[in-house]
C-alpha cells in the first residue's frame, strides 16, 4: 500500500512526504524479500529534504516556513497601508513611496519562489502576475486613486492606525480627545412638594465660641410642618470641607411650639465653629420641607492681647506697643489711654490682612455666603493680626493702655469695660488686656560755680567735690541714682587755648543720690560728657567744663607801732601792718590774752595788705598771739614765730567817732542815711550830734548807749543838696564830757543815674572786622563807678553781662556780633534808669573770606567734601570756585593723588570772586583738591575759623577690548538668532561696556558697524546680528569700546580680527494664519530646506524636539497651553534657524450643573429652587439646557422646553419653580464649543471663529 489511506476531502500530503513514501520498497510478510544491488554512490539519505529547498526541514519545518512567509506578507501589507494613511491625513501623493513599495513587493514576489517552500513554489509567470497586481494596488494607494473598497480600507486603517503625535510628543488617539464626556456633567431634578417651610436663625443673631462660651444655641423655626428628620450642613473654615449633622429624636423633641400660629422652634447646640445651613428637612408625610437658603456663622470669639518689650520709657520715646487681635476679620478695637493728666478713648476700624476679601464687607449681606463652585472659607477663619501702636510719650508719669471692646465682622462684641451694653458679652479684664508704662523724666547735669572764668581752687593734696548739679526738667523720681561720664586732662597737657590736650582719660561715676558727686584732687580740666539715670540718657548743659588748680600756701608778716593818747601820753593801742601771701580773701585768727582769759579774734582781709588798729576798750595788759590764717583755698594754716606775738599795757579815754567810709557819702533821693559811731570808754554813754542842711541845724541827743557801736539813721531825705552830720560830745560812766569834732558831710542826689548808647557815625549800628574788640559808646548820668547790666539778644543762652564803668562817656567792649540791649544801671550808690530810645545797639561782622563751589559747577556733596563727576584719563576738565570777601584773594591748595600718595602744593591770587581751577587728569586714580588757605584784603588766613573746601575727582583708566582668539574662523547661519558660535571678547575697564564692532564682507568696501550696549562683565560672547550678515566670508574687528565711566578708546585699523563664514538656513511656515486652537485640532506647518528636519518647540515651558522626514509637520492639540515653534534645522546647512511661531491651545469649555452630580430638589408649590451652573473656560459662556419630564417607571422622559443663556462669569444661578429634569446639552466659551446634541449624525467640538 502506498501510505495511509486518505479521504478526498483530507489536507493534501506534504510533497516531501509523498516522495519519501514512494521511495520506500514494497515488502511482503511471507518471506524474505530480495533487495536490489546498492548503487555505487548514494545520492541522498532517505529522510533528507527535497534538493530544491533552501532551508532544510530539520532546521525549520515547512509549516513554520509557510507561517513566516504569511506573517512577512501581512506585515508588509500593514506597513503599506500605514504609509497610505499618512498620505490620506496629509492629503498628498508620493512618488518616493510608490517606488519604495514597488521595489519591496518586487523583491517579495520574485524572491519567495527562490526559497522553494512547499506549496509556495509558483512559476515565474505567477510571480510576474502577482507583482503586476501589487504594482497596480500600490500605484492606486500612493497616488490617491479612488478605490471601490476605499471606505472599508479607511475604516480598517483608521481603527488600526488612528494615532497621532501630540504637542507633548505622545502618541494619542484623536477619538479619546474628541469624545470627552466629562465636559458636560450633572443634572438637577426638581420635585414640587406640599406647602411648609423651615428657617435657621430667623433673627439673624451672631454666634461665637470661645473659652467662656464653649457652645451656642442656634434656633431653627418650622412653619406649618412637623419635622421627623432634620439634617444640617456644617462647612469647616480650616479645611473647606463639609459634614452632615442629623439631629437626634431627643434633640428634635426639645422644642418650643406656638400652636396658635403653627410655629415650632428647635435649638441646635453647636460646639464647633463653622458655617451652618439647613440641608434637608423631612416632615411626617415623608416629604422634604421647603427651607430658606440662609447661612449661620459660628466663629471664634474675638480675643486680644496687649504686649510691649519693656515697661520703662523716657520722655519722647515711642510706646512700641503691639495689640495681637484674633478673630474674624474685619475687626474693630476700642481702647483707653490713661496718662497723668487725661484719659482718652480711641479705636481702630477695618483691621484685616492685606488683600483681604470677604462677603461680609458688602453693604448688604446675602442670605448665602458660599460661592457656588468655590467653597473657600478663608475669610471666615480666625485671623491673628498684630497692630503696632507707636506714640510719642509726653509728659512723664504712668501711661496705661486698656482694651475696652473688640468687634468682629459677624457682629460679636467682647466688652471688657466695667459697664456693658445689653446683649454684649462681658469679660473680666486680665493682665493681657492692660499694659502700663512708667515714663521717666530725662536728667540734666551741669557744673555750678565753676567754669572757664571761675576755676575751682583746692589745697594741694586735698580732695574736693566736683560742683555738679543733677536735676530733672520735671518732677524727679525717688531714686536719683545716676551715672556721670567725665573727661579729664592734666593741667600740664592743656592747649594754649585751655582745651583738652593729647592726654585725655575718660571715667564714669555711679552716684546713689542727686547730691553725690565725685571727689577729685588732681589739677586739670574736667569735662562732663554724659549723664544717665537708671532708665534714661540725659542732657549735659553749659557750663560743662571745670578747671581745678592748686594755689600756693598762705603766709603772714606783721609790722607794729604804738598808739599814744595826746593828752596824757599813755599807750592806748597798737597799729599793725599785715602783709599776706596766698589767695584772697584771707581770714587771720589771733588770741587776745588778758588777766581775764584768752579771747579769740579774727580779721577778714580782701587783699594782700591790711592795717589793723588794736585799741582795747578797757585798760590792762594785753598780749596778742597770731595763731592761724585762712585764704580762699587753705583753711586753718598754722602760724609760728616770735614776730607773731605782741604785748602792750593800755588805758583808753572815752571817745566817739563816726565810722567814715573810704570815700564821700552820697545819698539817694527819698532814702535815709545810716552812719555808725564807734564809742570807747566805760559804758553807758550819752551822745549828742547835729544834722545841718541849707543853713538850718537840728540837734539830737541819745542816752544810755550800752554798746561800743551805735548806728545813727536819719529820716528820708526828700530834697537834694549838701548835708552835714557832726558829733557834739560824748559822756561815759565817769561823767566826763568830752567835746567832739567828728563830722561827716554827704550829698543827696537831685536825680537818679541814667544810661543810654551813644552814636557811631550817627547811628546805633556798626560793622567791624570779626574778632576785633569793639567799644560801644555809652552816655551815663550819675556818679562813677556805674554798675551796668546788659545782654546780647542774639545769644541763645540768654546770659546777662555786668560791667563797671568809670566815666560818663565810657564804653563797653564786646567781641561778638548781635544786638546788645541795656537792661539796668546803678552808680556807686543809687539804682538808675535806661533810656528806652537808645537801649539797643547792633554789631555786625564784616564777612570773612569764603571759598565755595560756584553755582555753575556740577558737584555732588559727600560728607565733608564735594565729588566732581568722573573723567577719563587725558581728558581736559576744570572747576570754578566762588570767592566771597574783599578782593584781592590769595588761595592755597594741594593736590593729592591716590593710590600713589603724591602731593602737589599750589597757590594762586584772584582779583575777582570767581576762579577756574584746572583738573589734573594725567594718570588714572583719585585726586583730592584741598583748599586749605584763604586770605583777602581784610583778613589773614585763620586755620581755626576757616573750613577747608575739599574737592574729589576720580580719573578713570581708558578701557580696552580684544578678541580672545584673534585670527580664528567662526561659522554663522543666515537669519538664525540662537545657536551661532560666539566670538569671545576680553574687556578691561568698569562694566557695563558699550562696543562698536565692524563687520566687513569680502565683497564690500565699507564695513557694517554693530553697537553693543550694557555689557555687564569683563568677558563678552559676541553674537553677530544677522541683519548685517550675508552669505559669504566676513572680517570682524573691534572699532571702539566705552565703559561705565564714559571713557572710550578706538582700535587701530590694523588691529586683530576674526573671520566669519555665513550659511543659509531652513524655514518653517504655518499652514493656517489663525492663532487660537482647541483641544483635538491639528496644528500644521510647511518646511523649506532639505529633509530630514529637526523642529524645536516649546510647550508650556518644556523644550521639545521633533523630526520630520518630509516638508510637512503636524501635531494634534492634546491639552491646553502655548505651543511655540522656536527653531528649525535641516541636514544641508546644519543651521538652526530661530523663529517664534506661537499657537494658543485652549481648553474645551465645560459645565457642571449641581456640582456635576444628579441632585433632586424638593420644593413646595410656589417656591423656587436654585440651579447652579459652573463653567470652566474663557468668558463669555453660552449654554443651552433643557427641561424634561421627570422619569417615571414605564414612561420615557420627553423634553418640555429648551433655553439658551449667556453668562459673563464662571458661575450662574437660575431660579426655577417648575418641576422637571434640567440638563445642559451644549456649552460654548470665547474660543471653543461642545455639544451633546445630534446634528448631522455626530457630536463634536470646534474652534469658534469670530
UniProtKB/TrEMBL annotation:
Residues of the Nucleoporin POM152 first Ig-like domain: 197-298
Domain Nucleoporin POM152 Ig-like: 442-546, 752-839, 1149-1234
One annotated Gene Ontology cellular component of this protein: nuclear pore transmembrane ring
Domain Nucleoporin POM152 N-terminal transmembrane span(s) in chain numbering: 62-145
Renumbered residue ranges of the record's region Disordered: 1-37
Keyword entries, A-Z: Membrane, Transmembrane, Transmembrane helix
Domain Nucleoporin POM152 immunoglobulin-like, residue spans: 550-652, 870-957
Pfam families per UniProt: Ig-like_POM152, Ig-like_Pom152_1, Ig-like_Pom152_9, Ig_Pom152, TMD_POM152
Transmembrane spans: 67-85, 97-119, 125-143
InterPro entries: Ig-like_POM152, Ig-like_POM152_1st, Ig-like_POM152_9th, Ig_POM152, Pom152, TMD_POM152
Biological process according to GO: nuclear pore organization; protein import into nucleus
Every Nucleoporin POM152 ninth Ig-like domain range: 1066-1144
Entry GO MF terms: structural constituent of nuclear pore
Protein name, as recorded: Nucleoporin Pom152
UniProt organism field: Calycina marina
Amino acid at each position: 500500500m502506498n501510505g495511509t489511506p486518505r479521504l478526498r476531502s483530507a489536507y493534501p500530503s506534504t510533497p516531501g512526504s509523498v516522495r519519501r513514501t514512494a521511495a520506500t520498497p514494497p515488502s511482503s510478510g511471507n518471506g524474505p524479500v530480495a533487495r536490489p544491488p546498492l548503487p555505487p554512490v548514494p545520492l541522498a539519505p532517505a529522510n533528507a529534504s527535497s534538493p530544491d529547498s533552501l532551508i532544510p526541514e530539520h532546521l525549520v519545518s515547512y509549516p513554520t516556513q509557510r507561517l513566516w512567509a504569511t506573517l512577512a506578507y501581512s506585515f508588509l501589507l500593514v506597513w503599506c497601508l500605514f504609509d497610505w494613511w499618512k498620505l490620506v491625513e496629509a492629503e498628498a501623493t508620493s512618488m518616493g513611496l510608490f517606488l519604495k513599495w514597488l521595489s519591496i513587493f518586487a523583491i517579495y514576489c520574485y524572491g519567495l519562489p527562490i526559497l522553494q517552500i512547499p506549496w509556495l513554489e509558483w512559476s515565474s509567470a505567477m510571480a510576474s502576475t502577482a507583482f503586476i497586481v501589487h504594482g497596480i494596488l500600490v500605484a492606486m494607494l500612493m497616488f490617491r486613486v479612488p478605490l471601490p473598497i476605499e471606505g472599508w480600507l479607511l475604516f480598517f486603517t483608521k481603527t488600526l492606525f488612528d494615532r497621532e503625535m501630540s504637542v507633548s510628543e505622545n502618541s494619542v488617539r484623536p477619538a479619546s480627545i474628541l469624545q470627552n464626556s466629562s465636559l458636560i456633567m450633572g443634572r438637577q431634578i426638581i420635585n414640587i412638594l406640599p406647602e411648609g417651610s423651615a428657617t435657621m436663625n430667623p433673627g439673624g443673631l451672631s454666634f461665637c465660641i470661645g473659652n467662656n462660651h464653649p457652645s451656642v444655641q442656634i434656633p431653627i423655626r418650622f412653619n406649618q410642618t412637623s419635622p421627623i428628620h432634620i439634617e444640617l450642613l456644617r462647612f469647616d473654615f480650616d479645611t473647606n470641607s463639609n459634614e452632615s449633622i442629623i439631629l437626634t429624636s431627643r434633640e428634635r423633641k426639645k422644642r418650643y411650639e406656638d400652636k396658635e400660629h403653627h410655629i415650632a422652634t428647635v435649638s441646635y447646640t453647636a460646639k464647633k465653629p463653622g458655617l451652618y445651613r439647613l440641608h434637608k428637612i423631612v416632615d411626617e408625610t415623608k416629604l422634604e420641607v421647603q427651607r430658606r437658603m440662609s447661612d449661620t456663622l459660628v466663629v471664634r470669639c474675638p480675643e486680644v492681647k496687649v504686649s510691649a518689650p519693656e515697661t520703662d520709657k523716657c520722655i519722647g520715646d515711642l510706646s512700641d506697643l503691639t495689640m495681637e487681635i484674633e478673630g474674624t476679620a474685619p475687626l474693630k478695637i476700642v481702647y483707653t489711654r490713661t496718662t497723668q493728666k487725661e484719659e482718652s478713648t480711641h479705636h481702630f476700624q477695618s483691621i484685616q490682612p492685606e488683600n483681604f476679601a470677604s462677603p461680609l464687607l458688602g453693604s448688604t449681606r446675602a442670605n448665602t455666603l458660599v460661592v457656588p463652585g468655590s467653597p473657600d472659607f478663608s475669610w471666615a477663619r480666625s485671623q491673628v493680626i498684630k497692630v503696632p501702636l507707636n506714640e510719642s510719650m509726653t509728659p512723664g508719669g504712668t501711661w496705661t493702655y486698656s482694651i475696652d471692646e473688640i468687634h468682629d465682622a459677624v457682629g460679636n462684641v467682647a466688652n471688657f469695660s466695667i459697664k456693658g451694653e445689653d446683649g454684649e458679652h462681658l469679660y473680666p479684664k486680665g493682665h493681657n488686656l492692660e499694659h502700663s508704662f512708667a515714663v521717666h523724666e530725662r536728667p540734666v547735669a551741669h557744673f555750678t560755680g565753676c567754669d572757664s572764668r571761675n576755676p575751682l581752687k583746692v589745697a594741694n593734696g586735698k580732695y574736693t567735690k566736683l560742683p555738679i548739679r543733677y536735676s530733672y526738667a520735671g518732677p524727679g523720681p525717688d531714686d536719683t541714682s545716676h551715672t556721670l561720664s567725665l573727661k579729664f586732662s592734666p593741667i600740664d597737657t592743656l592747649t594754649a587755648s585751655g582745651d583738652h590736650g593729647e592726654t585725655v582719660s575718660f571715667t564714669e561715676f555711679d552716684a546713689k543720690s542727686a547730691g553725690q558727686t565725685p571727689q577729685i584732687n588732681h589739677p586739670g580740666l574736667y569735662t562732663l560728657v554724659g549723664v544717665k539715670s537708671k532708665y534714661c540718657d540725659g542732657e549735659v548743659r553749659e557750663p560743662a567744663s571745670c578747671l581745678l588748680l592748686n594755689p600756693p600756701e598762705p603766709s603772714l608778716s606783721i609790722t607794729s607801732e604804738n598808739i599814744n593818747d595826746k593828752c596824757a601820753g599813755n599807750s592806748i593801742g597798737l597799729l599793725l601792718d599785715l602783709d599776706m601771701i596766698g589767695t584772697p580773701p584771707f581770714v587771720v585768727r589771733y588770741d587776745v590774752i588778758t588777766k581775764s582769759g584768752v579771747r579769740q579774734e579774727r580779721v577778714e582781709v580782701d587783699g594782700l595788705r591790711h592795717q589793723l588798729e588794736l585799741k582795747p576798750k578797757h585798760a590792762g595788759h594785753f598780749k596778742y598771739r597770731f595763731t592761724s590764717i585762712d585764704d580762699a583755698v587753705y583753711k586753718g594754716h598754722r602760724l609760728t614765730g616770735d614776730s607773731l606775738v605782741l604785748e602792750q599795757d593800755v588805758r583808753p579815754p572815752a571817745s566817739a567817732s563816726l565810722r567814715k567810709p573810704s570815700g564821700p557819702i552820697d545819698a539817694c533821693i527819698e532814702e535815709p542815711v545810716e552812719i555808725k559811731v564807734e564809742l570807747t570808754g566805760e559804758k553807758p554813754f550819752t551822745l549828742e550830734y547835729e544834722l545841718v542842711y541849707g543853713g538850718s541845724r537840728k540837734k539830737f541827743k541819745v542816752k544810755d548807749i550800752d554798746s561800743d557801736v551805735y548806728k545813727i539813721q536819719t529820716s528820708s531825705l526828700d530834697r537834694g543838696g549838701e548835708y552835714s552830720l557832726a558829733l557834739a560830745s560824748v559822756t561815759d560812766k565817769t561823767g566826763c564830757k568830752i567835746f567832739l569834732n567828728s563830722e561827716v558831710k554827704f550829698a543827696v542826689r537831685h536825680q537818679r543815674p541814667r544810661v543810654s548808647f551813644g552814636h557811631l557815625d550817627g547811628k546805633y549800628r556798626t560793622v567791624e572786622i570779626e574778632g576785633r574788640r569793639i567799644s560801644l559808646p555809652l552816655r551815663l548820668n550819675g556818679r562813677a563807678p556805674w554798675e551796668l547790666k546788659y545782654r546780647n539778644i542774639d545769644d541763645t543762652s540768654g546770659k546777662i553781662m555786668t560791667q563797671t564803668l568809670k566815666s560818663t562817656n565810657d564804653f563797653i567792649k564786646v567781641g561778638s556780633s548781635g544786638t546788645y540791649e541795656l537792661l539796668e544801671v546803678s552808680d556807686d550808690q543809687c539804682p538808675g534808669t535806661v533810656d528806652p530810645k537808645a537801649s539797643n545797639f547792633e554789631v555786625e561782622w564784616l564777612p570773612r573770606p569764603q571759598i565755595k563751589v560756584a553755582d555753575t559747577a556740577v558737584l555732588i556733596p559727600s560728607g565733608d567734601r564735594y565729588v566732581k563727576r568722573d573723567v577719563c584719563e587725558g581728558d581736559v576738565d576744570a572747576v570754578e570756585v566762588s570767592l566771597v570777601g574783599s578782593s584781592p584773594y590769595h588761595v592755597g591748595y594741594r593736590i593729592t593723588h591716590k593710590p600713589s600718595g603724591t602731593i602737589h602744593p599750589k597757590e594762586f591770587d584772584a582779583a575777582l570772586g570767581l576762579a577756574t581751577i584746572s583738573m589734573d587728569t594725567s594718570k588714572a586714580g583719585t585726586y583730592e583738591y584741598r583748599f586749605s588757605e584763604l586770605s583777602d584784603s581784610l583778613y589773614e588766613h585763620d586755620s581755626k575759623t576757616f573750613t577747608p573746601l575739599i574737592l574729589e575727582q576720580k580719573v578713570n583708566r581708558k578701557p580696552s577690548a580684544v578678541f580672545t582668539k584673534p585670527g580664528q574662523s567662526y561659522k554663522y547661519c543666515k537669519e538664525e538668532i540662537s545657536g551661532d558660535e560666539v566670538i569671545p571678547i576680553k574687556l578691561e575697564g568698569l562694566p557695563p561696556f558699550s562696543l562698536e564692532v565692524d563687520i566687513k564682507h569680502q565683497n564690500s568696501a565699507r564695513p557694517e558697524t554693530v553697537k553693543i550696549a550694557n555689557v555687564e562683565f569683563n568677558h563678552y560672547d559676541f553674537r553677530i546680528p544677522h541683519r548685517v550678515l550675508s552669505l559669504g566670508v566676513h572680517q570682524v574687528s573691534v572699532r571702539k569700546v566705552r565703559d561705565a565711566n564714559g571713557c572710550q578708546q578706538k582700535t587701530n585699523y590694523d588691529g586683530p580680527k576674526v573671520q566669519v563664514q555665513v550659511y543659509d538656513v531652513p524655514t518653517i511656515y504655518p499652514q493656517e494664519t489663525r492663532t487660537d486652537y482647541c483641544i483635538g485640532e491639528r496644528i500644521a506647518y510647511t518646511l523649506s530646506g532639505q529633509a530630514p528636519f529637526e523642529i524645536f518647540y516649546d510647550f508650556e515651558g518644556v523644550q521639545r524636539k521633533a523630526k520630520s522626514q518630509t516638508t510637512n509637520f503636524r501635531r494634534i492639540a492634546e491639552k491646553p497651553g502655548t505651543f511655540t515653534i522656536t527653531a528649525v534645522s535641516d541636514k544641508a546647512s546644519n543651521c538652526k534657524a530661530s523663529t517664534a511661531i506661537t499657537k494658543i491651545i485652549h481648553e474645551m469649555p465645560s459645565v457642571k450643573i449641581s456640582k456635576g452630580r444628579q441632585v433632586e430638589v424638593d420644593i413646595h408649590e410656589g417656591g423656587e429652587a436654585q440651579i447652579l451652573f459652573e463653567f470652566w473656560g474663557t468668558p463669555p459662556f453660552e449654554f443651552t439646557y433643557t427641561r424634561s419630564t421627570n422619569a417615571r417607571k414605564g414612561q420615557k422622559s420627553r423634553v418640555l422646553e429648551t433655553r439658551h443663556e449667556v453668562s459673563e462669569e464662571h458661575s450662574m444661578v437660575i431660579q426655577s419653580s417648575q418641576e422637571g429634569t434640567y440638563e445642559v446639552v451644549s456649552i460654548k466659551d470665547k474660543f471653543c464649543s461642545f455639544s451633546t446634541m445630534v446634528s448631522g449624525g455626530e457630536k463634536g467640538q470646534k474652534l469658534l471663529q469670530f
